[in-house]
Write a structure and sequence with these properties.
heterodimer; A: ABC transporter involved in vitamin B12 uptake, BtuC; 13 helices; 2 strands; about 70% helix; disordered C terminus; B: alpha/beta; Rossmann fold; 6-stranded mixed sheet; binds adenosine-5'-diphosphate; binds magnesium ion
Chain lengths: ~325, ~525
């Protein structure tokens, strides 16, 4: 049980504020990945390999930052590698007709394997990563200032990216095309567009964002690299997309919710509250399942029509 | 008059240049010659009607003009210049627009989003309000009422058709191809469409319209062409120079018999085939789609259902067959109450349905014709744990002969068939069983003259056999010819029940539009 004293401050912060700060800090990498996956699935391609793209991003960002000393180069590297891995998924799924779900797992293992291999030499390296930047004025607002205005630059970027992707999807012709490709590709073909090309772009963008999410994790939050450091965040992001009904702003809220679940454990520990560590570690995943079970029916009704093909497809024989 | 005397027209559009012309156009699908050595042209400022049997190759020819297919031989000239149309984008760039027979809209999008998607250019932003205003303006100009904010999935087929037509017109086409547009429109709407087509013609645009209804061709066409089995049997004919019989025999290759006039009275001693009492039904959007409907269909009677598209026909069909829950009220089939809304319950009481949209409602992907027909007859075909397929094939062959709708080869996968051929399979299945109540939604939609006539005969045969027939149609002529009584729906209300001999089609139209008798 959370004792009464837990609600009191540690280092001048209430538990709730600390958890919310952590929610944004830990949720941002998931949010990037979920945003990318939203774009991909809106165009009709599920990338279960998002986890692999995040890992690839986390490791590339770390390595490039270690070599160049500039975390922004790390972000560029992460975006490129995450995007490239996703494009491989797109190629195998679109051009070679591979099963989306099975192929996604392949991408995940590829990301895991490659990053273990190439990342090994960086495990004990230190980097000069992103530092929190307190926005003058805003960051001194009580509570809110700490929660929203004392973060790394990638987090600030993500604040803008959520609404930007929403705008792109729902208020631009490009968004109409992208969503159209995910709903009924033949309709786009009959206007002379290529749904395949749109899907390549969407899946590539999705991987790119997942890569940046990985970069945020390794070069802004953890400031370290170790094997399989994303620990399922990519899978949570995929689940989150469904929970968010393929809506970028809902995905933002969902990501922070999971971020809060991730942050709760450490914050309780700092306050010496006796909760089973196993329970705390499992919390984000249990939450994912619970939310999916509760919301699945409502959510799936809003699934892009093109995704139905994936789920209805007969098993590969 | 014989086919040989069908002469090319010498009408007033003779002088206008051909916007599009094809020479020796041939398209094969495997061994099948869908269009063979076809010559055809359309002039600006004309309405050109393309007639032909189901499967004659009309849609294929139009898809060649729209760049969906590429010809195996022959050439296409636009404004007198030979063009290769590698994709619809090429055709659209040349000002050719097409409304497909199977509608091409995204159900999860709003009307405005669908139209914005189809409009060429238009910049980076999707300006929702601007597009919505444009749609309202264009709709008003054409006499269509459409709600740009409505989700397409909530629209009926007729309403979707209107959106399709608006879509092509708004994308600035000079040549508008309409593949059987009127088959889903109510008479008033057909008039509206024709008014719109005339105003397009007045602006110098060219329109190709595929239709099965000769009176429509006569009402709108400046010239007509006839395809039969992939060949042009008459090209660019002036409609005033030919009579209907000559046209029909050119299309069909034989004469079509008239419907029997003599009909027996419904037996008085049998319970009503269908009794609908105080039924309210919710629509897909949660709105009330049917209000307090009271309706009785006697055994051995055809009750027609008329109404503008989207007046509650689909909901009535679904409610009666247990496909949609009743909010209040009850439904009796042969005097037995349908306990709950369950298609199995309706089936068990002897109700059979012919669905409005067989391709999405009744086709099981992957199954062939024999399997589809065996589905409705499984118990009698059981052999051990399996199905006696040899027997099934025999039965289907026998059924096909008896029903006479000339289905395609019985081993073809139904999902791959054209709309008209799917409809033949569905009709054969429905007419092949003895029923108490037959609920037929637009059974002759998309069918050619001869098949339509056969379908009508089969409906009357069910009536003679003592079934009650609830017959939903958009074709008032057909409704008046077949029905003992016609129930008119308006906006989910029963606007009235009339007897065809006692009122004319204008009175029915009045009820359809919400006026009184
Ligand atoms: N994509 C296709 N593949 C194979 N056969 C086709 C295809 N499209 C049409 N057909 C066949 O070509 C013939 C002409 O079809 P269609 O042009 O749709 O006829 P219509 O529009 O006059 O009813 C039919 O026999 C049809 O089955
Ligand atoms: Mg056709």
């Amino acid at each position: 049980m959370i004792a009464a004293q837990a609600a009191t401050d540690v280092g001048g912060q209430l538990l709730i504020v600390s958890v919310l700060v952590g929610a944004v800090r830990s949720g941002t990498s998931i949010f990037y990945a979920a945003l990318g996956e939203t774009i991909s699935e809106r165009a009709g391609v599920i990338n279960v390999g998002t986890e692999g793209c995040m890992l690839a991003g986390a490791m590339s960002a770390y390595a490039v930052t270690a070599e160049t000393g500039n975390p922004w180069f790390g972000v560029l590297g992460a975006a490129a590698v995450g995007g490239a891995l996703a494009l491989l998924h797109a190629y195998l799924v679109i051009a070679r007709g591979a099963n989306q779900l099975a192929n996604g797992l392949v991408i995940m293992f590829l990301g895991l394997g490659l990053t273990s291999l190439f990342g090994a030499s960086y495990v004990s390296r230190e980097i000069n990563g992103f530092k929190p930047y307190a926005i003058p004025g805003l960051s001194s607002i009580p509570a809110v200032g700490d929660i929203l205005f004392n973060h790394d630059p990638l987090t600030y970027l993500s604040f803008a990216l959520g609404p930007a992707v929403w705008f792109l999807l729902f208020r631009t012709r490009w968004g109409l095309l992208l969503r159209g490709a995910g709903e009924r590709a033949p309709v786009l073909s009959s206007y002379g567009y290529s749904p395949e090309r749109i899907r390549y772009i969407a899946v590539g963008l999705g991987g790119l964002l997942a890569g940046i999410g990985g970069a945020q994790l390794s070069t802004a939050v953890a400031l370290t690299w170790f094997e399989n450091m994303t620990q399922g965040r990519g899978f949570i992001a995929v689940a989150l997309v469904i929970f968010a009904s393929w809506h970028p702003l809902w995905a933002m809220g969902g990501a922070y919710l999971f971020g809060a679940a991730l942050a709760l454990g450490p914050e309780l520990q700092v306050r010496n509250v006796g909760v089973n560590q196993f329970v705390l570690d499992a919390l984000p995943y249990v939450m994912t399942l619970a939310v999916l079970v509760v919301l699945a029916k409502r959510s799936f009704q809003r699934a892009p029509e093109g995704l139905a093909e994936v789920f209805d497809a007969p098993p590969v024989s | 008059m014989s086919i040989a005397t069908l002469e090319p027209s010498a009408d007033r559009t003779k002088q206008s240049p051909s916007i599009i012309e094809v020479r020796g156009l041939t398209k094969r699908f495997g061994d099948l010659v869908a269009t063979g050595d076809v010559d055809f042209d359309v002039r600006s400022g004309e309405v050109h009607s393309l007639l032909g049997e189901n499967g004659a190759g009309k849609s294929t020819l139009m898809k060649l003009l729209y760049g969906v297919y590429q010809p195996d031989a022959g050439e296409i000239l636009v404004d007198g210049v030979v063009h290769r149309l590698d994709s619809p984008a090429d055709a659209r760039a040349l000002g050719i627009g097409m409304v497909f027979q199977d509608l091409r809209l995204i159900p999860a999008f709003t009307v405005a989003e669908n139209i914005a998607l189809s409009l060429p250019g238009g910049g980076f932003r999707y300006r929702r309000q601007a597009v919505e205003r444009q749609i309202l303006d264009a709709g008003a100009e054409l006499g269509f009422s459409v709600d740009p904010k409505a989700l397409v999935r909530h629209l009926s087929i007729g309403e979707r058709q209107r959106v399709e037509i608006l879509k092509v017109l708004m994308s600035g086409a000079r040549l508008v191809i309409l593949d059987e547009p009127t088959s889903v429109l109510a008479p008033q709407e057909v008039d509206g469409l024709f008014t719109a087509i005339r105003s397009l013609r007045a602006k110098g645009l060219a329109v190709v319209i595929i239709t099965h209804k000769l009176h429509e061709t006569r009402a709108i066409a400046d010239r007509l062409s006839i395809l039969r089995a992939g060949r042009m049997v008459g090209s660019g004919i002036d409609p005033t120079t030919v009579d209907d019989r000559a046209l029909i025999s050119a299309m069909v290759g034989r004469e079509v018999p008239p419907l029997p006039v003599e009909r027996s009275d419904p037996p008085a001693d049998r319970p009503a085939a269908l009794r609908v009492t105080g039924v309210h039904v919710r629509g897909d959007g949660g709105n009330t789609a049917l209000h307090d409907i009271h309706l009785e269909v006697k055994a051995g009677e055809v009750m027609g259902v008329a109404g503008v598209a989207g007046s509650g026909q689909r909901e009535l069909y679904e409610a009666v067959l247990g496909l949609r829950p009743l909010h209040t009220g009850d439904i009796h089939i042969a005097a037995v109450e349908m306990a709950k809304s369950d298609p199995g319950a309706a089936l068990a009481l002897g109700a059979v349905g012919i669905p409005e949209d067989p391709i999405s409602d009744a086709v099981v992907p992957g199954l062939d014709v024999t399997e589809h027909l065996a589905l409705s007859n499984l118990s009698s075909l059981r052999k051990g744990l399996g199905i006696d397929w040899a027997r099934a094939r025999e039965l289907v062959a026998e059924l096909d002969r008896q029903i006479g709708l000339r289905m395609v080869a019985h081993d073809r996968t139904v999902a791959d068939l054209s709309g008209g051929n799917v409809q033949r399979v569905m009709l054969t299945r429905a007419f092949g069983v003895d029923c108490t109540l037959l609920v037929a939604a637009y059974p002759s939609r998309g069918l050619d003259v001869a098949t339509t006539r056969r379908t009508q005969e089969l409906l009357l045969a069910q009536r003679e056999a003592g079934a009650g027939v609830l017959f939903i149609s958009e074709d008032l002529d057909e409704l008046m010819e077949l029905s003992d009584q016609i129930a008119v729906l308006h906006n989910g209300h029963l606007a009235g029940v009339v007897t065809p001999g006692e009122v004319d089609r204008y009175a029915i139209g009045q009820l359809m539009l919400g006026g009184s008798e």
